[in-house]
Specification:
Blueprint (H helix, E strand, L loop, with lengths): L1 H20 L6 H14 L17 E3 L2 E3 L3 E7 L2 H7 L6 E4 L15 E6 L2 E6 L8 H8 L8 E5 L4 H11 L5 E5 L6 H4 L5 H14 L4 E5 L4 H14 L4 E4 L3 E4 L7 E5 L4 H14 L5 E5 L5 H9 L4 E4 L1 H5 L4 H11 L1
Parallel strand pairs: 3-4, 3-14, 4-7, 7-8, 8-9, 9-10, 10-13, 13-14
Antiparallel strand pairs: 1-2, 5-6, 6-12, 11-12
Helix pairs in contact: 1-12, 5-7, 7-8, 10-12
Bound molecules: flavin mononucleotide (FMN).
Length: 333
């Protein structure tokens, strides 16, 4: 046990040196291309050091069994990357939000790094760059579910969401309903129309053969807790993901604004989970996402009442060993 802790500690340190010394100094598009090419090329998912199989860590989300409570948050739609991620310690993997038609996304620059006092983060205005429903469905059909797959959907209308949920739910274990990405008007505005959102949630929940997750925006804490979560519960939704990136101005981006991710989000994520747990003490299950880049942060969120913990930016800044490091700490408790 001690030897493996030393080994994962050494890998974590080596990755930090690689991130600080190389990845974070390359222009962002080069760093993204290098990171994704490496992830596709190296069969890291075959190495047991990146996982921890410990039956005591098993949990469920919306009734679906997960081997542990770590979730890779939505960002990747490439089936090769999703397949690798399923062997990198996560208890579930989320695919990037899919829209009915393909979308090229916003022009570059659409992702920039930020170095905050809390540590390295990102701001993106990706704009839902994705291959669209039909192309994505074809790749999904070939993806084995080594751990549960969460498919994320994003739409502009009730019809969009119903079409997406009907087409994609059969290939997913859970469906995440994105109403919170801040960098297009496409979904973000749903939080400003909670009455319409209530109808939408009811219709989509009825159409979905798989458990739904509603992914909330940290920019709308009041509306979330006063209107959106109660509406989700009334529609039969048992899981919320709190949450997405926070909208910030960023003059370096093509849209001059984007979604902030990374450790600066963490204090708000923790507060949101604590408040939500207190206000909805019943059966609501919370995935806490936003700013997790260390075992201590993941544990703090679980202790605050989250059922699972999601992260994306920590996967980039702390590397694929982060999941194993968190699982080791959880297993020792
Ligand atoms: C480049 C990028 C793309 C993302 N794409 C999506 C997306 O398609 N759908 C979604 O719900 N969230 C998306 N997110 C948000 C993440 O899933 C996550 O909620 C957010 O980054 C906060 O977690 P983190 O601080 O651990 O990164 C994206 C984040 C980044 C940085």
């Amino acid at each position: 046990m001690l030897a493996s802790l030393r080994m994962t500690g050494a890998i974590a340190l080596a990755y930090r040196l690689f991130y600080d010394g190389i990845l974070s100094r390359l222009p962002e598009p080069t760093a993204v291309a290098l990171g994704q090419a490496t992830l596709k090329a190296l069969p890291l998912d075959r190495l047991s050091i990146f996982r921890l199989d410990e039956p005591r860590l098993a949990t469920t989300l919306g009734g679906v069994p997960l081997p542990n409570p770590l979730v890779l948050a939505a960002m990747y739609y490439d089936a090769r990357i999703l397949r690798r991620a399923m062997g990198l310690g996560f208890g579930a993997v989320t695919a990037k939000s899919i829209t009915v038609g393909p979308r090229p996304g916003h022009p570059r620059p659409n992702l920039v790094r930020v170095r905050t006092a809390a540590g390295p983060g990102l701001v993106n205005c990706n704009g839902f760059q994705n291959p669209g429903l039909e192309a994505f469905r074809a790749t999904l059909a070939e993806l084995p579910h080594r751990v549960p797959l969460i498919v994320s959907i994003a739409g502009e209308s009730v019809d969009d969401y119903v079409t997406l949920v009907k087409a994609l739910a059969p290939h997913a274990d859970l469906v995440e309903f994105n109403i919170s990405s801040p960098n297009t008007r496409l979904v973000y505005e749903w939080s400003t129309r909670p009455a319409q959102l209530r109808d939408l949630l009811r219709v989509v929940a009825e159409a979905s053969p798989k458990p739904l997750i509603v992914k909330l925006s940290p920019d709308f804490a009041d509306v979330n807790e006063r209107e959106i979560i109660p509406a989700a519960i009334d529609a039969g939704v048992r899981v919320v993901n709190y949450g997405n990136t926070r909208r910030v101005d960023e003059p370096r981006l093509s849209q001059k604004a984007g979604g902030l991710s990374g450790p600066e989000l963490f204090p708000a994520t923790l507060a949101n989970v604590r408040r939500t747990r207190e206000r909805f003490p019943g059966t609501l299950e919370i995935i806490a996402t936003g700013g997790v880049d260390s075992p201590a942060k993941a544990i703090a969120l679980l202790d605050a009442g989250a059922r699972a913990v999601g992260y994306f930016t920590g996967f980039i800044t702390r590397g694929p060993i982060l999941a194993r490091r968190i699982l080791e700490r959880l297993a020792r408790r």
